[in-house]
Fold this protein.
Amino acid sequence: MTAPVTASRRSLPILSPEAVGGLRPALADVIEYRKSGLSLNWIIGCPLECGYCVRHLFDNFEMKVPRRLMSDEEAVIQLLGNPYFRAHKTPLQLLNRATDPMLPAVKPHLFNVLRQLDERGLTNHVLIITRWRVTPEDCAVLNDFRHLRLTVLVTHSGIADPAIEPVDSTIAVTSLRTLYERAERYRTVLYWRPIVPGLNDCDTDLARVRELSQRAHATVFTGLFFREEIAAYYRAHGLPMPYGETARRKILPEAAEQRILDAFEQGGSWVALFRKTSCGVAYAHGEADYNGHYGIRELCDICPPDQIAKCHTAWVKPGLTHVTQEARRLGATGPIEITDRAIVVEGLDEPPRYYLQHGFGYQCHDRDKPHHRRQHGRAPIGW
């Protein structure tokens, strides 16, 4: 067994209460419930200047030096005490919003929190997303956790323009191979994003990603999260605008997706390719999707047949009475409906909807923000 990794001599400083009070409330709140899991972000600041980073949305893109908002121990206490946390059930994400978890100064704290969770015997899914360097020594630490269902998603864009993607893509390629070759207790997913038509989807790009997918337990692809804050950064820095408008959801035009699917289908060797993060994570661990995407059948037409069968078996339409009780307890207003695709509610923002979704293993949608067929969770641009 590898020696415990602590954050003692290399500990990042903790911001003062005054400094934390000066942050945007959303950035100062270390826990956010996202579709792929309850997200814990107790470290902020990143030197990687990816032009499309969600850090633009939190006004901390210029924070280049990682700092902690609290100790690792306090972060764990807050996570486990969060009303949406359920032991062995709620999927978790660590440091996926305001820094890269594998930065040298950050990863001792990541490993410290992982160890604290694992020592409690928790079997929750835990997702770690990185585009930075992962060493064989890091893999040994990751393999040492005995209970957590751990997945490392390696972000790879292949974008050549250094003004948009200043991080050399070969770093992610090396990390992916290192992780995959040494995986024992964890799983590795190739996270191909963001895909922007005309920027990183030429035939050479597609062939390259197809080759890389052979060094991962699953491959997930997705488009660009192009919000107004990111568009403003593009304009200020004279970057080519990828789209003429912004959108609340990720943008991946239909034609671009079809080119990707055609390239992978004609590539020869079989690839486990998925549209949704949780689908790829679940497949890598030999489980059914915890987000209940099976209800959105058009998402499944590229999934392996055995995975579709697994998700079909696990996908059970919940009873209206039970769902209504839970939704009302969370503050739902208006009528509650259960279709063959999803639970449909009113008056609930994303965290309680995700709580219902992960609890029932069944999609949960806001009636005022419908998911249209073949556009599930995607912007209408190009569809």
